TrEMBL record:
Protein name: GPP34 family phosphoprotein
Topology class, membrane: Peripheral membrane protein
Protein location: Golgi apparatus membrane
A family per Pfam: GPP34
Organism: Streptomyces nigrescens
Primary localisation category: Golgi
Keywords: Golgi apparatus, Lipid-binding, Membrane
Domain of life of the organism encoding this protein: Bacteria
Length: 213
């Protein structure tokens, strides 16, 4: 499994976790939404889903992809039915992100890229952290991301990943300060170009509005 290419959700999760502390670099819920959006992007690229009427996901090919994350995401989508309306993308993203993160964590643990640590707050309440494991895939993922951004995101996959990074509010942590401002602006523009990142952005904004209200 170590030599298998990373899926888009795996790569986003590696970018979204502090490699030393193993904690999310953005709001954990926002990262969940980003992972769900990244999984949808992979499914669309594999010809398994399409989006209709602006924001409704329809499964057009239910055959498994053969990987745990993609198949988990596909199984979580409504089965194709004649005349079915599909599911609204931002609603699916809102509900599917947390179980998809657990799938990603398990896959990355098997790769040796992350290790699961259980801690207790106040000695009572358990919580988990996921620092880098014996096989460092986080460093190379960050290096690839930075190089792609500095090159203007020439590849479609780079653009999809960058759009999810911005949609789940990771861009300020990965591209900080004044030097990163032009890149952050470019990434924010990408969010509108892809329906999967728009769905993530919608879910994030719903949470922010609810918190503000």
């Amino acid at each position: 499994m170590t030599g298998t290419p990373l899926s888009l959700p795996e790569e986003l999760l590696l970018l979204g976790l502090d490699p030393v502390r193993g904690r999310p670099l953005t709001n954990p819920k926002y990262l969940h939404y980003g992972l769900a959006g990244a999984a949808l992007a992979d499914l669309e690229a594999a010809g398994r889903i399409t989006v209709e009427r602006g924001d409704r996901i329809t499964v057009i090919n239910p055959l498994p992809l053969g990987n745990a994350i993609g198949d988990g995401a596909l199984a979580a989508l409504p089965a194709p039915t004649k005349g079915g309306k599909g599911v609204k993308a931002h609603r699916w993203v809102h509900g599917a992100g947390r179980p998809l993160q657990e799938l990603c964590l398990r896959v990355l643990e098997k790769r040796g890229a992350l290790r699961r640590e259980t801690h207790r707050a106040l000695g009572l309440f358990p919580y988990e952290r996921f620092p880098v494991g014996p096989v460092d895939l986080s460093g190379p993922a960050r290096a690839r991301f930075t190089a792609a951004v500095e090159a203007g995101l020439p590849g479609w996959r780079d653009r999809l990943l960058a759009a999810q990074v911005a949609a789940c509010d990771l861009d300020a942590r990965l591209l900080p300060g004044a030097a990163g401002r032009p890149h952050r602006r470019a990434l924010r523009g990408l969010v509108k170009e892809c329906w999967t990142s728009r769905a993530v952005h919608h879910a994030v904004q719903q949470d922010k509005s609810a918190a503000g209200g």
